[in-house]
Fold this sequence. Notes:
Layout: E1 2-10, H1 17-38, E2 41-45, H2 50-55, E3 58-64, H3 67-86, E4 88-97
Helix pairs in contact: 1-3
Amino acid sequence: MIDRVHLFKLRDAHSDAPTRDGLAEDVHAKLAPHVKAKGWELRVGVPAGIEAAKAWDLHVSISFATSADEVGAMAAIDDALATVRDRSEVEKHWSFARR
C-alpha cells in the first residue's frame, strides 16, 4: 500500500473554520467517487486541536494499492486540490510505503 499525504496551510483570508470546513467537504466530494470506485482509502481532515491548527489547516490522505495507482490518479488529485492550492500559502506532500 502507498499512502499519499497532503498538508495545507491556508492563507489567513481562507483559514477560518467555515471556509476550511467547506474546502475539506469539497475535496472529499470530488475525490470520494474516484477513490471508492478503485477500492482505495480517502481521509480528509481539519485540525483537531489548537497546536495542529497553528501548523496546518487541511489534511488529505489517499491510500493506493500500488505506486502505479498513485501515478494514475494524479490528474484527479490535482483537479480536486486546485481550489485548496489557490487559497494556500504552503502545501507539503509525500508518499509513504506502508509496512
